[in-house]
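Appendix B.2, paired examples.
Example (i):
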Amino acid sequence: MLLVDTNVWIDFFKGKKECQKLSELLISNEILIHPFVISELVIGGLKKEIQLKMEKMKQAEVVSEEKIRQFILKENLVGKGLGLVDIHLLASARLMPCQIWTFDSFLKTASNQIL
């Protein structure tokens, strides 16, 4: 399973070549979606019909805010250039377990170190 970050979805919807493999992974049901990623895409103008399809995909588990704060400290994620959604993706990926597909260098580095 692969948890896909918002920036990969955006490039996929733009038809960028580096995201073509996402179509194959979607067909083979190897993709997880995090609810926060859907929300970020909605903020960016995601069409309702696509949102509804994404909501039917296999969902990553959302980690409670209390556990997120513990995770930040335990994994030394302070000052690493990560946003809250990034940290939620990391915690969910650790819990599932799965890998994260992202183009964000900070998230990629953190993912390689703790997953």
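Example (ii):
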Amino acid sequence: MNKSIFITGVGKGLGRALFLYGQKSNYKTYGLLRNIEQFKDLQKDMIPEMGKLILADVGNDDCIDKIHNAVGENKIDLLINNAGIPGKGQKLAEVESDDMMQAFNVHCIGVLRVTKALETNLKKAKSPTVININSRLGSISRQSDGIFKDVPVSYAYRIAKAAQNMLSCCLKNEFEELVNIVALHPGKIKTEIAQKDADIEVDWAAKKIITDWENGQLNKFNGIIDLTEDKIIKW
């Protein structure tokens, strides 16, 4: 039986590349996205027997039922929580509470919703893995050291990613050996929300993420795995 992959945020960027690579690599690949135009566009590249798209928003509770309806009782070997938004406001005076809530809702609660929806499906797999796509910018220790003081990024994004890291820790502690929980920094990828020093193509990152998972190289660590360097970023 083919292994199954579930990916969120497949409308563009890394998520789209992951979806396309997954189905072409003979995995049953589920892709979740919220934009109807991107949904229609991605359908053109979908392999019917391998790919399945789900129109839903991880920021809403109704995504849980939509995921259940799409996946049913099938096992999921790999869940990649990739959906994200950039946030606004790089200075305190520019930060708005609604924007902070939206970022937290997608990056943290959204991951919680999807993982909760697929808990039973993951436990049906032999060696299930959950990869939470995080960021170097979600590291509190690096932020505290001032490493990214010249990188223009919103309060909302940094704080939401840090919150997601705590969620990853909670999941890791709960599931222990039952489900492999991984926080992953995919590198400085060239996307619409990329930083000015982005230097990695999404297709390369997508292939490496799935290949490293296949080879058993993505295991739970006490920190964020840096996909492009042989090291772990401290929380």
